Each structure stands twice: as structure tokens, then as C-alpha cells.
Amino acid sequence: MSSVSYHISNLLEKMTSTDKDFRFMATNDLMLELQKDSIKLDEDSERKVVTMLLKLLEDKNGEVQNLAVKCLAPLVSKVKEPQVETMVDTLCSNMTSDKEQLRDISSMGLKTVIAELPLSSSGLTLTASVCKKITSQLIGAMGKQDDVSVQLEALDILSDMLGRLSGALVSFHSSLLFSLLPQLTSPRMAVRKRSILALGHLVPCCSPALFSQLTEHLLTELAKGPPTLNTRTYIQCLATVSRQGGHRVGEHLEKLIPMVVKFTGVEDDELREYCFQAFEAFIRRCPKEMSPHVATVTQLCLKFMTFDPNYNYDDNEEEEDSMDIEDGLDEESDDEYSDDDDMSWKVRRSSIKCLEALISTRRDLLLSFYATICPALLTRFKEREENVRADVFAAFSTLLRQTRVGSSQHGLIMAGSDAGTCREEEPAVALLKKQVPMIVKVLHRQLKEKSIKSRQGCFCLLTELANTVPGALEEHIPALIPGIVFSLTDKSTSSTMRIDALTFFHVLLLSHPPQAFQPHMQVLLPPVVACVEDTFYKITSEALLVTQQLVRVMRPQGKTVTAGGFDPKPFVKEVFSVTMKRLKATDIDQEVKERAISCMGHMVCHLGDHLGAELQGVLAIFLERLKNEITRLTAVRTITLISASTLKIDLSSILPEALSVLGSFLRKNQRALKLGTLACLTALVTHHAASIKPAALEPVLSELPALVDEGDMHVSQVSVTLLTCMAKACPSSLAKICSSVLPGIFRLVHSPLLQGGALVAILDFLQALVLSKTSNLGYSQLLKSLTEPFHSPQSSADGGVIHRQSYHSVARCVAALSSASPKETPATVAGLIQEVCDSAFQNFCGGYDLLGVGVVYFHMRILSFSCIHGDPKTCVLIAVLWFKVKTAASCALGSMAVGSLNDYLPFLLKEISAQPRRQYLLLHSLKEVISACPASSLSPHVESIWALLFQNCECQEEGTRNLVAECLGKLTLVNPAQLLPRLKQQLKAGMMGQEGRVCVSFLNVHVSFSPSLGAGQCIPSEPQTSLPAARWELRDRQQITTVNGNAICS
Q1: Which residue has the higher pLDDT, 190 or 122?
Q2: Contact, 275 vs 307, CB < 8 A?
Q3: Neighbour count for residue 384 (Cβ, 10 Å)
Q4: Cα dist. 212→175, 209, 243, 287, 288 in Å?
Q5: Which of 129, 316, 595, 725 could staple 685 via S-S, CB 3.0–4.6 A?
């Protein structure tokens, strides 16, 4: 006998002991053994273990029984199929036992076994076999009408099994359906509810035919005679089927909706509740199919959301405005009203939830919701039932969130617009703004009610409103302040309530101008300060966050004297003392420590000139927190904030030591700390260079070369930005490290990964380096280092071929150097032109290398930046001769034209007309000009370009036509007010073919991104309004859809 079998035998022997403790310990040890992956049982041991555990299910001790059930879970995967079937047979037999305890423990055992049955393909045979045994016996158990408890247990197990293993029960789906349907008419409500739950689990995996049978059965039963108690069950079942079946219900909605609508007219509150729950399920699962019925459902919801036959609101409406908030009589009269038999609140709640589902799924109807649903919800803020009122607040918050989704997208679209451009407001936001006075009027009274749940709902709703329409509550802040102060000072207020009030107050401060709060500072500050001293850390943390914003309100950044003559001095001492107490404490929560550091940092940044002698003590504490591993990141960010303060805070007392500590952070593996440290050093060098000695920067400079690496482009970008600041503020300090830093920067320049912000940072650094006049870092030396790889064998520093992208990067760098050294530019240009010509002739004779592409970019970028005028004919000649680099040459010609528009553009337009064979390349140059040239510079030439493009819109070459269309689209955005109507006229006249479709596509993608294009100016994409129907083929529309999608993604 093996050691495992011997050990198991000993445990099984102890399980037969008369001592319950022996049995318990032996069963516990067996469970631990079975949980080990390495255990392997022989056939005899399997049989003995299964027999013993099934015997222990009948043990007199409940703890032993529970342990035996727990042992079944790991045992399923350790024994063979016959033993699992034995377990299932015994458990199913015990389920029908007369002993209630054995029946309950066996049900638990069956659920445990079902939860452990394998879902993988290797175990499907076992799963199918076990499910077959269980299902057949459960169907029999459900038929026992005389024993309800057996029915309930069988339905519970069946629900679990269908929820997890419905796919393995496909062959039983039909029999299960016909066994479950009769249970819907059971006299016991618990049986009906569990049957509905089981049917819900059956729906997702059943066949379409079976699903149709179920739906038709429900329809047939609902159509029978007058409503009965079973009608509620069928409506409930319908809602559950819809939630689980999803879109499959859609094809039956035309029959279902009228029937459910009819039942809402029955005088039965519970039935009405279930009807609205069914509507909610239909709306969430089948929004498209529900479109024809949205108006009907909305009207029903609006009607029944006010359904309260036992209570009259009219008496209080007229007196609501004049009613004092602290008048206890009226509040008591509301509280005294009670009717246990009144179920109308369930109807109101379900109708409001249905409206919320409608709002969340149909954002396309948002404007109509503001006309119909919004006013109705506002009137229900007075709802007497607390739970229903919370649902009203939730529904209105959903409306606000839907509005914010649209306005945030609109804000992102408009983010690229000029500061002086008038932005078009989202229509839904405009409608919401009109409702703000009414919202505040209805809510401000409830903010001082005793009901905590109502106040929390008010604060959550107001927080959504402030986030959706920043600044909308500015005029109403005096009305909101009493409610905020009440929630913060009321002794009966819970901690959650205070946190919600502080959260709203913080959002309010962030989203509204400081001058709106300054007159109320005397009232607002004391309760917030009291919350900072609260013993609960979450309240303290939120209060410090609010205090930080109040400091900003006292004196906004950049203003030495606040508007309106507000003087922050009377409040500084109070705020400083309470924040300093938290800042000094070391035995507090980590979150409070960080918030205290940040809050005090804002005090120093905004009010540092009012702190006097206390300032140096605060800076010393910041230095200590900087050395602490737990608080160092927050301290770094705080010092960054203080460094950039307009008050020019004197940091000389901590600078030398702080720089040394910050330098050590650059070696750490924590990326966030590294980035924060680089930003802090940049701020210190930029704003406090006079206080920094060159020796103090040495710990920082020694760490920078290792950070300039293509492995992390963002860290490299921030590091190069710091080097740029040093080159401008402390040029002498760079001389020592240029030999170690520059090689890394040049490697980045030649890397194929360099682009975007990192490239711009390097351009700025090279320019700053040239302007700093540092020895051995002049223009010629930098230019030589940049271009050296192209004049040597074509390999990069690591032995690989230089990537094509590096030509573009080096070209930008050479152009940046030339713009910083105008005197050196002519000689550089002359040399590059010579290289271009040499490469061209070599190419013409058959010798070609990729260096020519880079030289073209060098040449044209320099011309673009330094406005050196060359001969356009020469450039066109180059573009013609270079067969393999013609596209690069054409784009470069466009870049050159941007630098000297009056000289190059007329010639370019002339060549497009005169050279049909080179037209495609020259149009690329024109597209570059339209894309890169400012609208003000391009405006005088718009008419000539417009005429030229329409002359070539019927070109035989498809590529040329598409390019013309793209140019037309880009050109239209230069002056949309004038050009867009003309373009629409051309499209309606049918003067454009394929290129018209591309142009429409381009404009439809870009119209929303242009601040000067209104919503009404967008070109329609439908064939009957934009292009001749005969030319609009399905294939073309699919292509345009693809173009639109790609453009948006990019």
C-alpha cells in the first residue's frame, strides 16, 4: 500500500470514531489532502472516500456535515466518472428524503458538485453524464406538488446548473421548458419566482424555436380573459426573459408591447410595477426595435411617475417658496403620513427607472428629453417617498451624464480652435442651462432636510451638474452655501454625508471662478476647518482638498491683489495653523499626509508672502518629507508648484540639499518619481537659476546622460527639456557633460522611434546649445555630428542600416540649427544643394542611395525655416530626375513653397497646368502648401488655387482626381463661410464624380474639427442631396465609410 493510501485509510478510520472532534479533525485533514494537486487516489481509495463522505452527510454534528460538503468540491476532480455518478445519485436521493436537515445538506452538496464540474473539452463527457443524471431526477422532484420544500431546492439547483452548464444540457432544454412552465401557475409565490429565475438561465442558450415557444406561451397566457394573479407572474417572466434573451425578444415586441400597455390600465399596483420593469428590460435590451414604441412608453412613464392617489401635493406647492426651512410642523406632517397597504410608490419607482433606462440608451433623443422628461423629473423632486425620490435624483443625474458625454466630445472637437474663435454651444447644454434656476430652486430646500439619503442625492445631482456645465451655478452659490454648511456642521450628519458634501464643494470650487466664493469666505471656512480636525481620516482628507481650493480662491495664481478688493489676510492664520498641525503629524493616514503636504504647498504658492517667519519652517518640513520614501513623490510635486509661483518664493535655504536629493531620485526605478523629479528640476532651473550654484547641479548632471535613451521616449523628452533650460539659464554647467549627453541625443536623432514631443524637445535643445555660445558646441560641430553617419558607410552606431525616419529627424535638426545661426545658413544650403545635384546625377546614371531622400528634406526644411529663395525650376527638375525619390521631392517642394509663398506658388500652379505627366507629384506639393500654410497667408491665392483644382477635377487618372478632391476639402476649410456654399453648389450640379465623394468624405470627417464650421454647414453624405444617384454606388459608399473611420482613428 502506498503512503498516500495508508494515510487516507487512517483518516477514514478516524472518521468512524464516536468522538465528534476526531471525526471533525479527520475530515478537515482529508480536505487538506484532497486540495493538494499532487495527490493521486487508487480505485479502492476513491470508492472508500466517496462512501465515507456520503455517510458523513448524515452525521449528527452539523460542523462535520459542512466539512463533508466542502470535501466534495476537490473530490470531483480527483475521482473517476463512476464515483462522481455515485455521489450525484446519492445526493439526489437524499434530496427527496423526509429529513429536512439531510435534504438541505444534500442540496448544498449537489450545488458544490455542479460548481466543480469541468467546462473544458476534456471533461465534457463527465459533465454531460452527470448533468443527465441530475436533470432527470430534478425534473421528477419538481413534479412533487405535495412537498414545496423539495420543489424549491430542485428549482434552486436547476437554476445553478443552467446558469453554469446550460450548454451541456441542450438535449434537455425542451423537457426542462415544459417542466418549468407549469410551475408558473403554482400557488406558492416562492416556487413561481424560482421558476422564473430558472427560465431566465435557460433562455441564453436555448434554440430559437424553443425561445419562440416560450414567448408564444407567455403571449397566449396573457391574452386569456381578465387579468388574474398569474398575470403578474407572466409579466415578471417576460421581463426576465427579455433581460436574459437580449435582442431575441425584439422580433416579438410588436405583439408584446400593446399587451403590456393594456395591463398598465388595470387597477393593480404590483401588476403596473411589473409592466414598467418589462418596459425597462425591452428598452435596455432592444433599443432599436423599441424605437416605434418610445413615445408610448414615455407617455405612460410620465403619467404614472406622478401616480399617488392617497396623497395630495397641491396644498403645499403654493407655499413651498415661502415655507421656512426649519419649520418642523410641515416636516412632521410628512413623516406622520403612513399607509402600509399603499403600493403606489412601487409604480412611481418602476416608471422612473424605466425613464432612466430610456435616457441612458437613447442619447439621440436627448433634446426631446429636455422638452418632456426633464420638467417632469423636476416636479418630482418633491416626492414624499424617500426611496422613490432617490430614484428621481438618479434619473436626472443620468440625464446630466448623457449631456456631459455629448458636451465633452464637443469640447474635444473644439479644443483645437483659436482662442478668439466663438465656439458653438452644444444644444443640450443650452437647454440644461435654462433649467438650472429651477433645479437650484427645487433642491436648495432639500439640502437642509433631516433625510440623509435625500441630501446625498441632492449633492450627487449637483456634482453632476457642476461637472456637466462648469460655471452654471455661479449665480446660485448664495442659495447653495447654507445647505453645504448645514451638512458639514449638523451633529446628526453621518460621515458619508459629510464626505459627499465636501466632494460637491470641491467640484464647485474647481468649476467656478474664485470671485464667486470670496464674499462668502467668512461663512465657508470655519466648517471646513472643523472637518480638517475631524478624527475620521476620510473626512480630514476631503477637507484638506477643499481647503487647498479655498486657498486658490483667496488669491488666484498671478494676482497680488484680488479682484473686488478681497483681502485674504484675516483667513491665513486659521488655515495655516490647522494645516500645519496635520503637516507635522507623523502618526496619521498616508492619504492625509499627502493632502496636508499638497495643501500647505498651495498656501506657500498663493499666500507665501503672508507667512512671514513661518515660511522657513515649512520649507524645512518639505525637505524632510522629500527625504521620506513614503511622501517623497508628493513633496517633489509640491516643490515644483512652489518653484513656479509668481510670488518668487525664496528657496535658497533648502536648494543645495534638495538638488542633491532630487539627483538621487533620477537613479530610482519608479517612473512617476523620475518624471516628477525632472519636472521639478526644470522648474527650479527656470525660476531660481540665480540661487543655484554650478556645483549644486553636479549630482543632477551626472544622472542625466543615462536618461536620454530610446527605451523611454517620454523620460528622454523631459530630460532634454531640462537640458534646454540649463543651456539657457546655466550654460557653463553643460560644458562638463556635453561629451556624455550629446552622443545619446544624436543616437535618439538617428533612431526610427523619434517623433512628436521628443523631437521638438531636441530641436529646442540644439537651438539653445548654439545660442549659448558654449565652447566646442558651435554650429559647425553640431552639424558635422548630425550628418556624419550619412557621409560614412550606411550604418548606424549599432551596426544596423540607418532607418528612413532618421533622415526626416536629422533634416529637422539641421533646419533648427540653421534658424538659430542665420549667418551660417547660406554656406550650408550651398553644400546641400551640391550634394543633391551629385546624388541626382549618380541616380540618373544608375547609382542610387537613400541619402538623397534625406538631403531633399534637409534642403527644403532649411529653405522653409530660413526663407532662402532658390530657383523653383531647379527644384522641379530635381523632382523630375529623381525617379525613386520623386514623392519626397514633391513634398519637399511644397515645404519650400510655404517658406516663400509669393515666389513659389504661382510657378507651382503654372507647372500643374503645363505638365500633365508631372501633375500628380505637383499636386502633392500643392497639398503640402494648403496643409502647412496659415489661412491668412493663403487667402490671397485661394481663387487661383480653386479655379485650378476645378479645371483638373475630371482628370482621367483616378489617383489625381482623388488628390484634387483632398486639396479641395483642405482648401474649403481655409475659408468655409465663402467656399463651402460654392462647393455644395458644384456637388449639386453634378460637376464632380469620384473626387466629389472623396471631398464629401474629407469634409464630413473634418467639419466637426473646424471651429469655424457650424453644424448646419456640414455637407450631407446622402446621395440624393449631394451627388447624382447614378454615380453613388454601394462600393463607393463603403470606401467613404472606411476613409471616415480611418481618419477619425488617426
Answers
A1: 190
A2: no
A3: 15
A4: 15, 5, 16, 20, 20
A5: 725
